[in-house]
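Extended Data, panel c. Modelled sequence:
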Amino acid sequence: MLDALRALPRTVWLIGFISLVNDTASELVYPLVPLFLTSVLMAGPKALGLIEGIAEATAALLKLVSGVAVDRTRRSKPWIVIGYALAALGRPLIALVTSWPALLAIRFADRVGKGLRTSPRDALLAASVGPDRRGLAFGVHRAMDNAGAVLGPLLAAGLLAAGMPLRDVLLWTLVPGVLCVLLTLALPEAQAAAAPVASSAPRPTLAGWASLPPGYRRFLAVVALFTLGNSSNMFLLLRASELGVPQAQVPLLWAAVSAIAMLLSAPLSGLSDRVGRRALLLAGYGAYALFYLVLGLASPTGAWLVLWFAFYGVFLAATEGVEKALVADLATPEQRGTAFGWFNMTAGAMLLPASAAFGWLYEQIGVQAAFGFSAGCALAAAALLRWWVPGVQEA
Protein backbone atom coordinates (compact mmCIF):
# COMPACT_ATOMS: atom_id res chain seq x y z
CA MET A 1 0.00 0.00 0.00
CA LEU A 2 2.79 2.48 0.86
CA ASP A 3 4.50 1.86 -2.47
CA ALA A 4 1.21 2.39 -4.29
CA LEU A 5 0.63 5.66 -2.43
CA ARG A 6 4.13 6.91 -3.24
CA ALA A 7 3.58 6.08 -6.91
CA LEU A 8 0.49 8.30 -7.21
CA PRO A 9 1.07 11.40 -9.37
CA ARG A 10 1.71 14.78 -7.79
CA THR A 11 -1.64 16.02 -9.11
CA VAL A 12 -3.54 13.52 -6.96
CA TRP A 13 -1.78 14.67 -3.79
CA LEU A 14 -2.15 18.34 -4.69
CA ILE A 15 -5.90 17.99 -5.28
CA GLY A 16 -6.19 16.08 -2.01
CA PHE A 17 -4.30 18.74 -0.06
CA ILE A 18 -6.44 21.50 -1.58
CA SER A 19 -9.55 19.63 -0.42
CA LEU A 20 -8.07 19.16 3.06
CA VAL A 21 -7.34 22.87 3.48
CA ASN A 22 -10.65 23.96 1.97
CA ASP A 23 -12.72 21.49 3.97
CA THR A 24 -11.00 22.49 7.19
CA ALA A 25 -12.19 26.06 6.60
CA SER A 26 -15.60 24.97 5.31
CA GLU A 27 -16.30 22.61 8.21
CA LEU A 28 -15.10 25.27 10.62
CA VAL A 29 -17.79 27.60 9.30
CA TYR A 30 -20.62 25.10 8.75
CA PRO A 31 -21.46 24.40 12.42
CA LEU A 32 -21.14 28.12 13.23
CA VAL A 33 -23.69 29.32 10.65
CA PRO A 34 -26.78 28.31 12.70
CA LEU A 35 -25.22 29.88 15.81
CA PHE A 36 -24.35 33.09 13.94
CA LEU A 37 -27.80 33.24 12.37
CA THR A 38 -29.69 32.89 15.65
CA SER A 39 -27.43 34.68 18.15
CA VAL A 40 -26.08 37.52 15.98
CA LEU A 41 -28.59 38.03 13.16
CA MET A 42 -31.59 37.06 15.32
CA ALA A 43 -33.17 34.90 12.61
CA GLY A 44 -34.83 31.52 13.05
CA PRO A 45 -35.03 28.01 11.60
CA LYS A 46 -37.18 29.09 8.64
CA ALA A 47 -34.46 31.46 7.46
CA LEU A 48 -31.84 28.76 7.93
CA GLY A 49 -33.90 26.30 5.89
CA LEU A 50 -34.37 28.81 3.07
CA ILE A 51 -30.68 29.72 3.00
CA GLU A 52 -29.42 26.14 2.94
CA GLY A 53 -32.11 24.92 0.54
CA ILE A 54 -31.33 27.58 -2.08
CA ALA A 55 -27.58 27.17 -1.59
CA GLU A 56 -27.52 23.39 -1.99
CA ALA A 57 -29.93 23.38 -4.94
CA THR A 58 -27.70 25.90 -6.71
CA ALA A 59 -24.60 23.78 -6.10
CA ALA A 60 -26.32 20.64 -7.40
CA LEU A 61 -27.38 22.28 -10.69
CA LEU A 62 -24.02 23.92 -11.34
CA LYS A 63 -22.16 20.64 -10.87
CA LEU A 64 -23.80 19.49 -14.09
CA VAL A 65 -23.20 22.79 -15.88
CA SER A 66 -19.50 22.85 -14.97
CA GLY A 67 -19.07 19.20 -15.94
CA VAL A 68 -20.48 19.86 -19.40
CA ALA A 69 -18.30 22.97 -19.66
CA VAL A 70 -15.18 20.87 -19.05
CA ASP A 71 -16.01 18.61 -22.00
CA ARG A 72 -16.80 21.57 -24.24
CA THR A 73 -13.76 23.68 -23.38
CA ARG A 74 -11.35 20.73 -22.79
CA ARG A 75 -10.14 22.58 -19.68
CA SER A 76 -10.67 21.86 -15.98
CA LYS A 77 -8.29 24.21 -14.19
CA PRO A 78 -10.09 27.56 -14.73
CA TRP A 79 -13.31 26.21 -13.24
CA ILE A 80 -11.44 24.80 -10.24
CA VAL A 81 -9.62 28.10 -9.59
CA ILE A 82 -12.80 30.19 -9.87
CA GLY A 83 -14.73 27.76 -7.67
CA TYR A 84 -12.24 27.85 -4.83
CA ALA A 85 -11.80 31.62 -5.17
CA LEU A 86 -15.52 32.22 -4.65
CA ALA A 87 -15.44 30.09 -1.49
CA ALA A 88 -12.32 31.85 -0.22
CA LEU A 89 -14.01 35.24 -0.64
CA GLY A 90 -17.43 34.23 0.69
CA ARG A 91 -16.56 32.55 3.99
CA PRO A 92 -14.88 35.53 5.73
CA LEU A 93 -17.54 37.92 4.41
CA ILE A 94 -20.08 36.12 6.59
CA ALA A 95 -18.53 37.93 9.55
CA LEU A 96 -19.51 41.30 8.06
CA VAL A 97 -23.19 40.71 7.31
CA THR A 98 -25.92 42.30 9.40
CA SER A 99 -29.02 40.55 8.03
CA TRP A 100 -30.00 37.06 6.94
CA PRO A 101 -30.66 38.04 3.28
CA ALA A 102 -27.02 39.13 3.09
CA LEU A 103 -26.01 35.78 4.58
CA LEU A 104 -28.14 34.09 1.92
CA ALA A 105 -26.26 35.98 -0.82
CA ILE A 106 -22.89 34.91 0.57
CA ARG A 107 -23.91 31.26 1.03
CA PHE A 108 -25.27 31.37 -2.52
CA ALA A 109 -21.89 32.57 -3.84
CA ASP A 110 -20.09 29.91 -1.80
CA ARG A 111 -22.26 27.13 -3.24
CA VAL A 112 -21.83 28.55 -6.75
CA GLY A 113 -18.13 28.04 -6.16
CA LYS A 114 -18.68 24.45 -5.05
CA GLY A 115 -20.86 23.76 -8.07
CA LEU A 116 -18.27 25.19 -10.47
CA ARG A 117 -15.28 23.29 -9.07
CA THR A 118 -16.56 19.83 -8.06
CA SER A 119 -17.10 18.09 -11.41
CA PRO A 120 -14.01 19.63 -13.09
CA ARG A 121 -11.90 18.57 -10.09
CA ASP A 122 -13.24 15.01 -10.27
CA ALA A 123 -12.59 14.88 -14.02
CA LEU A 124 -9.02 16.13 -13.55
CA LEU A 125 -8.41 13.59 -10.80
CA ALA A 126 -9.74 10.76 -12.98
CA ALA A 127 -7.54 11.84 -15.89
CA SER A 128 -4.43 11.88 -13.69
CA VAL A 129 -4.25 8.08 -13.16
CA GLY A 130 -4.97 4.90 -15.07
CA PRO A 131 -7.96 2.64 -14.32
CA ASP A 132 -5.75 0.32 -12.25
CA ARG A 133 -5.11 3.09 -9.68
CA ARG A 134 -8.33 5.07 -9.99
CA GLY A 135 -9.92 3.69 -6.82
CA LEU A 136 -6.83 4.46 -4.76
CA ALA A 137 -6.63 8.01 -6.15
CA PHE A 138 -10.24 8.81 -5.27
CA GLY A 139 -9.78 7.09 -1.91
CA VAL A 140 -6.81 9.33 -1.07
CA HIS A 141 -8.86 12.37 -2.05
CA ARG A 142 -11.77 11.29 0.15
CA ALA A 143 -9.37 10.56 3.04
CA MET A 144 -7.91 14.06 2.90
CA ASP A 145 -11.37 15.58 2.48
CA ASN A 146 -12.55 13.74 5.60
CA ALA A 147 -9.44 14.91 7.45
CA GLY A 148 -10.67 18.45 6.90
CA ALA A 149 -14.07 17.44 8.26
CA VAL A 150 -12.32 16.34 11.46
CA LEU A 151 -9.99 19.32 11.80
CA GLY A 152 -12.54 22.05 11.02
CA PRO A 153 -15.03 21.47 13.87
CA LEU A 154 -12.21 20.81 16.35
CA LEU A 155 -10.49 24.05 15.33
CA ALA A 156 -13.77 25.98 15.65
CA ALA A 157 -14.38 24.55 19.11
CA GLY A 158 -10.83 25.36 20.18
CA LEU A 159 -10.95 28.97 18.96
CA LEU A 160 -14.30 29.63 20.62
CA ALA A 161 -13.14 27.98 23.84
CA ALA A 162 -10.08 30.25 23.80
CA GLY A 163 -12.41 33.26 23.82
CA MET A 164 -12.13 34.38 20.19
CA PRO A 165 -15.30 36.23 19.11
CA LEU A 166 -17.49 34.48 16.58
CA ARG A 167 -16.97 37.14 13.91
CA ASP A 168 -13.18 36.90 14.29
CA VAL A 169 -13.28 33.13 13.85
CA LEU A 170 -15.15 33.61 10.58
CA LEU A 171 -12.71 36.29 9.39
CA TRP A 172 -9.72 34.00 9.94
CA THR A 173 -11.07 31.58 7.32
CA LEU A 174 -9.60 33.98 4.74
CA VAL A 175 -6.15 32.48 5.41
CA PRO A 176 -6.91 28.87 4.31
CA GLY A 177 -9.05 30.28 1.51
CA VAL A 178 -6.16 32.23 0.00
CA LEU A 179 -3.88 29.21 0.42
CA CYS A 180 -6.39 27.08 -1.52
CA VAL A 181 -6.49 29.51 -4.43
CA LEU A 182 -2.68 29.65 -4.60
CA LEU A 183 -2.52 25.86 -4.63
CA THR A 184 -5.09 25.59 -7.43
CA LEU A 185 -2.90 27.85 -9.58
CA ALA A 186 -0.20 25.16 -9.35
CA LEU A 187 -2.49 22.47 -10.75
CA PRO A 188 -1.59 21.18 -14.23
CA GLU A 189 -4.16 20.88 -16.98
CA ALA A 190 -4.77 17.23 -17.81
CA GLN A 191 -3.59 16.33 -21.31
CA ALA A 192 -6.75 14.28 -21.86
CA ALA A 193 -8.85 17.34 -21.12
CA ALA A 194 -6.79 19.53 -23.43
CA ALA A 195 -6.82 17.14 -26.38
CA PRO A 196 -9.22 17.92 -29.23
CA VAL A 197 -12.39 15.92 -29.42
CA ALA A 198 -12.46 13.27 -32.11
CA SER A 199 -14.90 14.00 -34.88
CA SER A 200 -16.76 10.78 -34.13
CA ALA A 201 -17.22 11.59 -30.45
CA PRO A 202 -20.63 12.92 -29.41
CA ARG A 203 -20.53 16.58 -28.52
CA PRO A 204 -21.65 16.99 -24.89
CA THR A 205 -24.74 19.06 -24.30
CA LEU A 206 -27.07 19.50 -21.38
CA ALA A 207 -29.63 17.55 -23.37
CA GLY A 208 -27.10 14.83 -24.27
CA TRP A 209 -28.26 12.30 -21.71
CA ALA A 210 -28.96 9.67 -24.38
CA SER A 211 -25.38 9.85 -25.68
CA LEU A 212 -23.93 8.71 -22.34
CA PRO A 213 -23.06 4.97 -22.13
CA PRO A 214 -26.01 2.74 -21.13
CA GLY A 215 -24.08 1.21 -18.24
CA TYR A 216 -23.38 4.64 -16.83
CA ARG A 217 -27.03 5.73 -17.12
CA ARG A 218 -28.15 2.60 -15.26
CA PHE A 219 -25.56 3.21 -12.56
CA LEU A 220 -26.84 6.76 -12.16
CA ALA A 221 -30.34 5.35 -11.59
CA VAL A 222 -28.85 3.16 -8.85
CA VAL A 223 -27.21 6.21 -7.28
CA ALA A 224 -30.53 8.09 -7.37
CA LEU A 225 -32.35 5.22 -5.66
CA PHE A 226 -29.68 4.83 -3.00
CA THR A 227 -29.55 8.58 -2.35
CA LEU A 228 -33.34 8.64 -1.93
CA GLY A 229 -32.73 6.62 1.22
CA ASN A 230 -29.62 8.56 2.22
CA SER A 231 -31.12 11.55 4.02
CA SER A 232 -29.26 14.30 5.87
CA ASN A 233 -26.79 13.02 8.44
CA MET A 234 -28.42 15.45 10.86
CA PHE A 235 -31.07 12.75 11.39
CA LEU A 236 -28.38 10.34 12.55
CA LEU A 237 -27.18 12.88 15.09
CA LEU A 238 -30.77 13.44 16.20
CA ARG A 239 -31.19 9.71 16.70
CA ALA A 240 -27.93 9.53 18.65
CA SER A 241 -29.22 12.27 20.94
CA GLU A 242 -32.48 10.36 21.44
CA LEU A 243 -30.48 7.26 22.36
CA GLY A 244 -28.68 9.06 25.16
CA VAL A 245 -25.64 10.83 23.70
CA PRO A 246 -25.22 14.17 25.55
CA GLN A 247 -25.69 17.21 23.34
CA ALA A 248 -22.13 18.41 23.91
CA GLN A 249 -20.75 15.07 22.71
CA VAL A 250 -22.77 14.79 19.49
CA PRO A 251 -20.23 16.83 17.43
CA LEU A 252 -17.41 14.66 18.80
CA LEU A 253 -19.32 11.54 17.74
CA TRP A 254 -19.53 12.86 14.19
CA ALA A 255 -15.87 13.85 14.22
CA ALA A 256 -15.10 10.22 15.11
CA VAL A 257 -17.11 9.04 12.09
CA SER A 258 -15.11 11.36 9.83
CA ALA A 259 -11.87 10.12 11.40
CA ILE A 260 -12.75 6.48 10.62
CA ALA A 261 -13.62 7.43 7.04
CA MET A 262 -10.36 9.36 6.76
CA LEU A 263 -8.26 6.36 7.88
CA LEU A 264 -10.01 3.75 5.73
CA SER A 265 -10.90 5.61 2.53
CA ALA A 266 -7.58 5.05 0.77
CA PRO A 267 -7.17 1.32 1.61
CA LEU A 268 -10.80 0.40 0.90
CA SER A 269 -11.08 2.44 -2.29
CA GLY A 270 -7.72 1.08 -3.38
CA LEU A 271 -9.03 -2.43 -2.75
CA SER A 272 -11.62 -1.83 -5.48
CA ASP A 273 -8.75 -1.67 -7.99
CA ARG A 274 -8.06 -5.34 -7.17
CA VAL A 275 -11.40 -6.94 -6.23
CA GLY A 276 -13.63 -4.79 -8.44
CA ARG A 277 -15.85 -1.75 -7.88
CA ARG A 278 -19.06 -3.79 -7.73
CA ALA A 279 -17.87 -5.91 -4.79
CA LEU A 280 -16.94 -2.86 -2.69
CA LEU A 281 -20.16 -1.00 -3.46
CA LEU A 282 -22.33 -4.03 -2.73
CA ALA A 283 -20.58 -4.44 0.61
CA GLY A 284 -20.96 -0.72 1.32
CA TYR A 285 -24.67 -0.58 0.44
CA GLY A 286 -25.26 -3.68 2.55
CA ALA A 287 -23.39 -2.13 5.49
CA TYR A 288 -25.52 1.02 5.16
CA ALA A 289 -28.74 -1.02 5.24
CA LEU A 290 -27.56 -2.93 8.31
CA PHE A 291 -26.54 0.28 10.09
CA TYR A 292 -29.95 1.88 9.53
CA LEU A 293 -31.86 -1.24 10.54
CA VAL A 294 -29.96 -1.55 13.80
CA LEU A 295 -30.15 2.15 14.60
CA GLY A 296 -33.89 2.23 13.93
CA LEU A 297 -34.95 -1.12 15.40
CA ALA A 298 -32.38 -2.25 17.97
CA SER A 299 -31.68 1.12 19.67
CA PRO A 300 -28.03 0.58 20.72
CA THR A 301 -26.75 2.72 23.59
CA GLY A 302 -23.48 3.59 25.30
CA ALA A 303 -20.32 2.02 23.91
CA TRP A 304 -22.34 -0.06 21.41
CA LEU A 305 -23.74 3.12 19.88
CA VAL A 306 -20.26 4.62 19.52
CA LEU A 307 -19.02 1.44 17.85
CA TRP A 308 -22.03 1.42 15.56
CA PHE A 309 -21.33 4.97 14.41
CA ALA A 310 -17.72 3.93 13.79
CA PHE A 311 -19.17 1.22 11.54
CA TYR A 312 -20.94 3.98 9.59
CA GLY A 313 -17.53 5.52 8.97
CA VAL A 314 -16.49 2.22 7.37
CA PHE A 315 -19.48 2.49 5.01
CA LEU A 316 -18.41 5.99 3.97
CA ALA A 317 -14.86 4.82 3.34
CA ALA A 318 -16.04 1.87 1.22
CA THR A 319 -18.35 3.86 -1.07
CA GLU A 320 -17.49 7.56 -1.52
CA GLY A 321 -14.30 7.14 -3.53
CA VAL A 322 -15.40 3.91 -5.23
CA GLU A 323 -18.55 5.50 -6.68
CA LYS A 324 -16.51 8.26 -8.32
CA ALA A 325 -13.95 5.79 -9.61
CA LEU A 326 -16.80 3.83 -11.17
CA VAL A 327 -18.15 6.97 -12.86
CA ALA A 328 -14.75 7.40 -14.52
CA ASP A 329 -14.71 3.70 -15.49
CA LEU A 330 -18.10 3.81 -17.18
CA ALA A 331 -17.72 7.12 -19.05
CA THR A 332 -15.65 7.77 -22.15
CA PRO A 333 -12.76 10.26 -21.71
CA GLU A 334 -14.54 12.76 -23.99
CA GLN A 335 -17.62 12.74 -21.75
CA ARG A 336 -15.96 12.37 -18.36
CA GLY A 337 -16.78 15.92 -17.24
CA THR A 338 -20.42 15.51 -18.27
CA ALA A 339 -20.60 12.15 -16.50
CA PHE A 340 -19.27 13.61 -13.26
CA GLY A 341 -21.67 16.52 -13.68
CA TRP A 342 -24.68 14.22 -13.91
CA PHE A 343 -23.41 12.11 -10.99
CA ASN A 344 -22.77 15.07 -8.69
CA MET A 345 -26.02 16.80 -9.63
CA THR A 346 -28.08 13.64 -9.10
CA ALA A 347 -26.53 12.92 -5.71
CA GLY A 348 -27.06 16.53 -4.64
CA ALA A 349 -30.57 16.96 -6.02
CA MET A 350 -31.86 13.76 -4.40
CA LEU A 351 -30.86 14.93 -0.93
CA LEU A 352 -33.89 17.23 -0.69
CA PRO A 353 -36.60 14.60 -1.35
CA ALA A 354 -34.58 12.09 0.70
CA SER A 355 -34.54 14.32 3.77
CA ALA A 356 -38.15 15.39 3.26
CA ALA A 357 -39.36 11.78 3.02
CA PHE A 358 -37.26 10.65 5.98
CA GLY A 359 -38.43 13.55 8.13
CA TRP A 360 -42.08 12.92 7.27
CA LEU A 361 -41.81 9.20 8.06
CA TYR A 362 -39.90 9.94 11.27
CA GLU A 363 -42.51 12.38 12.55
CA GLN A 364 -45.76 10.93 11.17
CA ILE A 365 -45.20 7.16 11.41
CA GLY A 366 -42.17 6.56 13.58
CA VAL A 367 -38.44 6.02 13.73
CA GLN A 368 -38.72 2.39 12.58
CA ALA A 369 -40.50 3.39 9.36
CA ALA A 370 -37.97 6.11 8.54
CA PHE A 371 -34.88 4.01 9.12
CA GLY A 372 -36.50 0.98 7.49
CA PHE A 373 -37.26 3.02 4.36
CA SER A 374 -33.61 4.06 4.07
CA ALA A 375 -32.42 0.48 4.53
CA GLY A 376 -34.89 -0.71 1.89
CA CYS A 377 -33.62 1.84 -0.65
CA ALA A 378 -30.04 0.69 -0.02
CA LEU A 379 -30.91 -2.99 -0.49
CA ALA A 380 -32.89 -2.26 -3.66
CA ALA A 381 -29.98 -0.21 -5.04
CA ALA A 382 -27.60 -3.09 -4.25
CA ALA A 383 -29.84 -5.55 -6.10
CA LEU A 384 -29.98 -3.30 -9.18
CA LEU A 385 -26.21 -2.80 -9.12
CA ARG A 386 -25.64 -6.54 -8.91
CA TRP A 387 -28.00 -7.70 -11.66
CA TRP A 388 -28.94 -4.68 -13.79
CA VAL A 389 -25.85 -2.49 -14.34
CA PRO A 390 -23.49 -3.80 -17.07
CA GLY A 391 -19.85 -2.91 -17.54
CA VAL A 392 -18.87 -2.64 -13.85
CA GLN A 393 -15.26 -3.63 -13.20
CA GLU A 394 -14.93 -7.10 -11.66
CA ALA A 395 -11.93 -8.74 -10.03
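The chain has one domain: 2-193+211-387. This feature is highlighted in the accompanying rendering.
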